[in-house]
Amino acid sequence: MRRAALTALTATALFWAATPAPSQPPTKAGQPPAVVSPEVRPDRTVIVRLHAPKAGDVALSGELGRKPMTKDDRGVWSVTVGPLEPDQYSYSFTVDGATVVDPRNTKLKIGRGSFVNLVEVPGNPAQDLRPVPHGTLHVHRYESKALGGKSRGLVVYTPPGYETATDRHYPVLYLLHGSGDDEHGWTDVGLAHRILDNLLADGKAVPMLVVMPDGHAAERSANTQAFEADLLGDIIPLVEKTYRVRPGAENRAIAGLSMGGGQSWVIGMGHTDLFAYVCPFSMGGGNAPAVLSKLDPAETNKRLKLLWIGCGRQDRLFGGSERLCEELKAKGIHHTWHPSEGAHTWMVWRKYLADVMPQLFKS
Amino acid sequence: MRRAALTALTATALFWAATPAPSQPPTKAGQPPAVVSPEVRPDRTVIVRLHAPKAGDVALSGELGRKPMTKDDRGVWSVTVGPLEPDQYSYSFTVDGATVVDPRNTKLKIGRGSFVNLVEVPGNPAQDLRPVPHGTLHVHRYESKALGGKSRGLVVYTPPGYETATDRHYPVLYLLHGSGDDEHGWTDVGLAHRILDNLLADGKAVPMLVVMPDGHAAERSANTQAFEADLLGDIIPLVEKTYRVRPGAENRAIAGLSMGGGQSWVIGMGHTDLFAYVCPFSMGGGNAPAVLSKLDPAETNKRLKLLWIGCGRQDRLFGGSERLCEELKAKGIHHTWHPSEGAHTWMVWRKYLADVMPQLFKS
C-alpha cells in the first residue's frame, strides 16, 4: 500500500530512495492470500471472506444473517448471502467462538465497547450517496456545565447552502441515538445526513438542522435526567448561539431510537413548551406512566403538531409502544401510531427517519 | 450493555418489559471472561490483553512495540509496556501469524485497507484533550469537477469563536495526510484540532482554518497531478466560498506528511503565487528535481515566508529530505531544515505540526 502510493508520486524519477515504512513490509512469498471482503455483486448478493487457516469453525453473524462459512484450500472461509434489499447491514465473524471483525473491511460501526463491520447494498434512493447537494456535518466538543464540566461530543448537520445563506434561519431536529451508540451513530450508521440530503433534493422536506448529541450522560437510572439537564442547559443554548436557528417550540423537534426513543418521549412530552414535534422510534424504556399522568390532553393537543410513535412488530419492545398508544388514545391525546415490519435494527430506524422528516416544520 | 442502558431509563417503574435486543444477549456462565484492554496506568505503563484460549502464539505489534504476550489460566494473553512518553500509540495483535485488532478497544486508526487500535497516554499538554475553548470540525462531501464528478470527503477545522465572529476573516492551512490515510487521518490520529485548540489557548498561534482534503485522487503515477487539480479547481474554491477566509498567498499555507509531504512540496513550490508557507514533513516522494529546476531563487525567496522541511533521523526517507535541503542551500533558497529524532510515525508528525503552526501567518 505504502509502496504503491510512493510510486504514485514519482512523475518522473525519484529524487531519493522511496522505501516502505517498517510498519508496511512488502508482500513476501508465504504471506496470506489476497482476500476481498465484502464483495457486493450486481445481483445484490454479498460474499464475505476471512483468511483463518487454523480455525476449526467460522460463521457469519449480524444483520447480514447467521450462516456457517466454508473453507477453501488456501484457508479462506466464505459465504454468500442474499439477494438482499438495498440497505446497509452490520456483520462480524465468529471464529471458534470468538467475535472477530472482517480485517479487510474498514467500514465499521463503532459502538460503546464493541465494533462490527458494515456493508452497503446500493439501490435505495432514500439513503444512497447520490450526486445531490450535500449538507455539512459539524463535530463539536464542549464541556457541559450541567454535567460538572464533563467533555462531550456533539454532531450538527446543516443543510446545503447553510453557510452562504447568511440571512436565513432554520428549524432544528434533536435526534437521539440508542444505548449502544454515541453521537456519531445517527450519521455513521443511521445515514441521517444522506437521508436528509436526498429528501431535500427531492423536495420532500424543508431545510432543517439536525443536532445529534451524546445520549450517555450518567450511569444507569440517573441517565435520562442528566441528559435532559445537558440538553436543555448546554446543548440547546450552544446550538442557538452557534447557528442561525428559529426560536420557539414550533421550530424544534425531538426524535430518537431505543434509549433515545425513551429520552425523546420523557424530555419531549415533559417540555411541550420547547418541542412541538415528538417522535420516539422503538422506544427503549422511559418513565411512561409518570409522563402520561402529567399530560393535560387539551393542552397537549394544542401544543403538539406531531406525536409520532413507531415500532417494529418483530421488536421485543413492540408491546410497550403499542400499550402506550392505547393509553394515549384512551386519554384523547392525538398521535400517529406506526407499527411496521422489522426488529430492533437500524434498517427500521433509517426508514422511520425518512418517513418522519417530511412531516416536520411544514406549517 | 443494552440491558444496563435500558435500566437507566426507568426513573421509577418500567411501563413495559425492557428486554435486551437479540444482538446483545445477557452474559451467561461459560462466556468469555471480562477483559479490560488497554489499561493505561498512572505510571504511564500500558497493559494490553486479549482473550484467545485456543491460540498458540500471541504478540503485540505497532507503535506500542513488538513484544511477546503470555497466557493466563483463563486464556487471556497480556503484556505490559512502558513507562511511555505521554503520546498516542497504535497497536494490534499477531495471533498465530494473523493480524487481529483489540476487540475491547473502540479507539481505532482506520486507514485505507486496514485498521489498528489506538491508545493514549495522557500528560502531553500540546495534544491532551484540555478544558479549553474548542474549534469545530466540519465534514463536507462534494463532487469534484476536476475529477469527473467523483464523490470526495473534506474536513475543515474552524477555530473557537468562528461561528459567532461573523465579521472576521481567517488564514488557511491546507494539511495533507499520508498514503495510508484519508481526510480523517490528521484529526483521528494526528489530533490536529486538539493541537491547535491548545496552541490558541496558550496564545502560541493565530486563529486559522485547517483544511484537510482526501489526498487520494487517482491511481499511482497520476495521483499528484489529479490531486493538484482537485485542490486548486474544487477544494480551494469550495473553502473560499463557504468560509470567511482571507485571500492571497500570504494567507495560505500548505503542509503534509509522507505522501502529503511530497504533495505539499510539488504543489506548494509549484504555486508560490498561491501559498507563502510550504511545510513538507517526512516527504514521501515528489518530483523534486523537476520542481527545483524551475525555481528562481530570488523570486522564491521574495514570495515564500516559510519553507520548513522536517524528517526523523530513523525514517528511511531521511536522506531524501536531507539531500533536498542541500540542494536548496546550494541554490540559495531560504528554508528551515528540521532533522529530528524519530521514525516514519505520527509521534513525529504531531510534534512537527505543533512546531510549525506557531510560525504561520504571524506577519
Quickly give the structural class of chain A. alpha/beta
As laid out across the biggest beta sheet of chain A, the strand order is 11-12-14-13-15-16-17-18
Approximate helicity band of chain A = 25-40%
Rg of chain A = 23 Å
Give the overall shape of chain A: globular
SS field, number of helical segments of chain A? 9
Provide mean pLDDT of chain A, rounded. Answer: 90
Summary?
The first copy, chain A, is an alpha/beta fold and 363 residues long.
How would you describe this structure in keywords?
18 strands, alpha/beta, globular, 8-stranded mixed β-sheet, homodimer, 6-stranded antiparallel β-sheet
Explain what the structure shows:
- Two copies of one chain form a homodimer.
- Chain A is α/β, with parallel strands linked by helices and 363 residues long.
- Helix content of chain A is 26%, strand content 26%.
- The first copy, chain A, contains nine helices and 18 strands.
- In chain A, helix 5 runs parallel beside helix 6.
- Chain A is globular.
- At the A-B interface, helix 1, strand 8, strand 11, helix 4 and helix 5 of A face helix 1, strand 8, strand 11, helix 4 and helix 5 of B.
